[in-house]
Amino acid sequence: MSTLIFTIAGIWFLSILAGLPLFASMGIAAFAFVHFGGLADSIVPQKMINTVNSFPLVAAPLFILMGNILTAARINDRIVAFATALVGWLRGGYAHASILASTIFAGMVGSAVADAAGVGAIEIKSMKRVGYRPETAAAITAASATIGPIIPPSLPMVIYGVTADVSIGRLFLAGFVPGLMMSVALMTMVVFVARREGFPREKFVGLYGIWTAFRDGIFALLAPLLLLGGMFSGAFTPTEAAAVAACYALFLGFVVYRTLEWKMMPAILIDTVETTGLVLAMVMAAGALGWCMSISRVPQTLTPMIVHAVESPLMFLLLCNIVLLIVGCFMELLAALLILIPIMVPAAHGYGIDPVQLGVIMVFNLILGTIHPPIGVVLFITARIADISFEKMSRAILPWLVPLLVVLALITIWPPLTLWLPTFFMGK
After folding, report:
1. What is the pLDDT of residues 37-49, one digit of tens each?
2. Is the pTM of this model over 0.85?
3. Taking the CA atoms of the chain, what radius of gyration do you get in angstroms?
4. Residue ranges of the domains in the chain?
5. Taking CA 427 as the corner, what is the angle to CA 421 and CA 428, rounded to the nearest 5 degrees?
6. Which of 141, 172, 319, 402 is most deeply buried (CB count within 10 A of its CB)?
7. Residue 96 CA to its chain's centroid (Å)
8. How deeply is 263 buried, as exposed, middle or buried, from its count of CB atoms within 10 A (0-12, 13-18, 19+)?
């Protein structure tokens, strides 16, 4: 069986090097496993269908749809305006507003890419207009975009919950404190950088100005409260919350702000279908490959080896951080999650580590890969918006990784930072 596993791994990596999409390479590896293992080829499509035959997974396309609607309807403009009115008077106010706007937007879409492409475009242009260096503006925006998948709702958390069989509600609650810590850590960084680089301080708009910005964007700002309040009050499940969120986004776009037009819907739906298709294809292929790994007893073999080699749960988590940070630099977030969950979750059980804490740590590490070269999809987006080279963007982001890594270290060392809220609201 070990020879077969090495053969399949070789086929998988050769498929990747040949330029095939990751979901295709995983599917080929799964077919190769059952074929060379003497099993029926029909098992692979059956396992693929079983993987997506999951009610919680319905939330994925609905959250994607909501994000596309909010972006198309320019709801993000009102969020940025409110954040700027609230903290723009501080030194480096536009940088603080960028982080605050990303934190609010995170409670609506839960995607780093959507954050960078949505509110990020407004934030970078605003900072450049008042004298920020383009690379600095882009780096602040990229760093704050990573808050998106940590604060609920979060698509990576949904995928982790479905794959690892962990409560999505608990994962959503577990992301609150780390997400807010990321926001505070980045704002603290802005305080020091603002003094050194002489960031401008905007005129205080007054309480009436803050109230006006709040009034103009109140329905958009209420979206996170509606979603999270409904979920945690028991009014609807996290999956049903995705449907409520999509309907609320349509209501804002068509009825409240009237910035959405029917002629925009085909493009929104096509974009949603394309993104959903890619996500589900990866989930299906990874599910089949994960089944192959399971029956070949790869996780069952690796888990005792890891537990024997690393005695301390903390050392195991630190090792996971190193591996995930490296993997995140070269692999897309969802793909890395789907590949590593079958290996890391069983090993974490062996150390008595709560899978909820592990889920937040895995998503946190891999989301940092989106702002780290050489892949860094968020870096590509923000560099394009700021009209700078990817190389310059890669150098500018490095100092902003420091506060995020500090937060990662804290949630790794002290489990209550991720587990207190789920335990308080949902019990043990």
Report:
1. 778 878 888 888 8
2. no
3. 22
4. 2-426
5. 100
6. 141
7. 21
8. exposed
